[in-house]
Specification:
globular, Endonuclease Iii, domain 2, mainly alpha, Endonuclease III, domain 1, 2 domains, 55% helix, 219 residues, DNA-binding
Amino acid sequence: MKKSDVIEFYARLAADNPHPETELKAGNPFQLVVAVALSAQATDIGVNKATRALFEEVKTPEQMVALGEAGLKQHIKTIGLFNTKAKNVIALSEKLIADFGGEVPADRDALETLPGVGRKTANVVMNVAFGAETFAVDTHIFRVGNRTGLARGKTPLAVELKLDKATPAPFRLHAHHWLILHGRYVCKARKPECWRCIVADLCAYKPKTPAPPSRANAA
DNA sequence: CTCCCGATAT
DNA sequence: ATATCAGGAG
């Protein structure tokens, strides 16, 4: 995508949503790490539903360890991959206590040493909890980047590095939320709603659905 | 590369 | 019935 189009692309998303935020609910950095770790291959809505009760009683790594793996499973059994997630979250909590004084480190490499935390989760935490200009490439951003031509790559890391190069200063902090929200609600995986997309004219995606789903023939 | 895995939309 | 959902680890 041309540099001028990239600027226009972001400018429109920014005008449409000046203050984009995470839809994952968390009261502190620890809860954020847990919520994002739980969100792999699951919807934000599903994660929030499970963490509502969980986060009322668990606000620290110590409380998570006290709850235990079996107790945690009871809270998150409605989320996919819950067995490995429960194990990871307990282990992650223990490691925060043992190696980081019970605090969430404001460092991507340190975050990535936590069980169940990879580059994408670490990037989310750095951006949301610590205000870092990171580009957390999840399934939505990977799709939007490749589809639109904004940032193409065969792997999430490749797309992340391209976004880092292509994204101008004024948009770097919120780029990841603009892109994820656009992917979630407009540039959907199955049925992208191009007819109401505000950046459709800048997009490389060809099989655009030209019009909204056919309402029954109008009178 | 495979496995992990429930809820929801299509 | 199947694709998809804020991925990560072996």
